[in-house]
């Protein structure tokens, strides 16, 4: 089935919590009729190569050879006390020490907090071992690549929750099980990405629950976004697969898209979109997100000079 959008600016591979290799991601995007796609794995720099039949090939050339313009990006998790504050970043100097420092910081904070979460779930009658987490349903990952979503998926597979989305909401709302990993603040990340010449887009804004606890006070989601805009935020996701995530608000994905476009479309921000594809279907997730489920049109992409400059080849 062809994608709803030919341009998808938010997707994941097995370099974080996705289930496709980068090569599989590219080939599937092409199969879906997507013309521009982005790999934005969590808190890691994008890959330079793909491996096919034991041979390495430069990733952008591989994508071009199959008819895809591929954008290299990363999705940085920010704000210790504000869940789902994720910044999608493009056009960076991926050799900058910021990213190696972020990698060390992230691995340390994730490993400690996720082990503690597994322990707390076990105490609550939902036994989860760290070995099960690392097995990742038969897709083993090293400890430094464990993502929180893998624990939610495991909770669902073991029958503790109906789905990974329900598991995420359970953990998020359990007042007696607040286990936060330390994350960088969003304003400082925006500043660092801009220092490297990159651009920053706020992912899935309506996954950020209200009230927003920011620097010791409760504010609205809109007020928090204004803080990010004042800090230099370049764009915001409007089209997003809320209906296939842990979103528990009352608005439809279409209503959110319209609201974001109306609030921010005239303010010089990039109005972005993406599926947040993970190929969860490989793990048996029902109704998984697909590349191109959400995104933007190629025509809209070409309206933004900041995005056009990211294209690796002439379009």
Unreliable segments of 5+ consecutive residues: none
Largest sheet: 7 strands, mixed
**Residue-averaged pLDDT, rounded?**
95
Distance between the termini: 24 Å
Fraction of helical residues: 25-40%
Strand order of the largest sheet: 1-2-5-6-7-10-11
- Based on secondary structure, the structural category is alpha/beta
Shape label: globular
- The radius of gyration computed from the alpha-carbon positions, rounded to a whole number of angstroms, is 19 Å
Sum this structure up briefly.
The protein is 35% helix and 16% strand. The chain is built from 11 helices and 11 strands.
Distinctive features:
single chain, two-stranded antiparallel ribbon, 11 helices
Question: Would you kindly provide a written description of the structure presented here, covering whatever features stand out?
Answer:
This protein has helices spanning 22-31, 59-65, 97-123, 130-135, 148-157, 164-173, 186-195, 221-230, 253-264, 298-301, 305-308; strands at residues 7-8, 36-39, 49-52, 55-58, 69-78, 85-90, 199-202, 212-214, 217-219, 235-240, 270-274. The chain has eleven helices and eleven strands. The strands form three sheets. A seven-stranded mixed beta sheet has the order 1-2-5-6-7-10-11. Helix 5 crosses helix 6 (164-173). With 315 residues, it is α/β, with parallel strands linked by helices. The longest helix is centred in the middle third of the chain and has 27 residues, at 97-123. The model has no long low-confidence stretch (mean pLDDT 95). The chain is 35% helix and 16% strand.
